[in-house]
Write a structure and sequence with these properties.
transferase; 314 residues; Fmt; single chain; elongated; six-stranded antiparallel sheet; Formyl_trans_C_sf; Methionyl-tRNA Fmet Formyltransferase, Chain A, domain 2; seven-stranded mixed sheet; 27% strand
Amino acid sequence: MKIVFAGTPEFASMALEAVKRNGHDIELVLTQPDRPAGRGMKMQPSAVKKTAMEYGIPVEQPVSLKINGKYGEEAQRVYDKIRQIAPDVMVVVAYGLILPKEFLDIPKYGCLNIHASLLPRWRGAAPIQRAIEAGDKETGISIMQMEEGLDTGPVLLQEKIAIDKNVNASQLHDQLAVLGGKMIASALERLDTLVPVPQNETEANYAAKILKEEATLDFTLDATAIADKIRAFNPFPGCVAHYNDVPVKIWKAETANANSGAPAGKIVSADENGIVVACGNGTLNILELQKPGAKRLPVSEFIKGFSFDNGDFK
């Protein structure tokens, strides 16, 4: 089976590895252009490009795939190249560019997307984070037949996993990446027998991209909602609370046992076991923190160099 693969981050790289390990012929990889990264801001290839290069797979990195747009000449060249390959299927995972209908129509079996949600539960850019933030008890992987709408295509294959109450977005990402690789390998072996199931539009939610502006914690909310947000925003961008105007990043927390009766943001207690903060409903026990310019630390270490004697969180 001839395959064109389109993806960019580590999540997609693990899927590329799985497809390659299963003996499929990957004729071409599409990925985002190299970006500056790291302390020296040197140009760095995507995780998918690194994997493709290891296997000697040809790589294309168009800025856009819009044939009639600003980069239309480049898009046309990539389009012609894919048409010449005449792939049986295109596998798309967190690519980051919109595939116009011209591209979707090229492969014999169309384009298959690995989506990290139980579609239609979370469509869009951040399904892992939004599922945790919303307090969902389960999530999973959907193998979807792509169409022009945003994650609106029929689902070919779906598998659920439970969301542990202590898991953060990074950890859940890794679990789903492994599952996604396993499922796309299975789907490629069963393309002739898989039955597309239309999505129920009334159950769809939009998983908007995570913005840094969302990171500030609001202690007037329920303690469980705050704890969920902290898990969802770990590792990016990290939730922030302000103590006496000092921004402190909160990386790990759990709900405490009972309401304190104190106003929201009031520090009820602070010791090596945690910093207990009153919330709009319930209390939050903060377990891992980071002050500006310093390392992330467990609370037992953090409180040795930071006093919580005179102030509250805002």
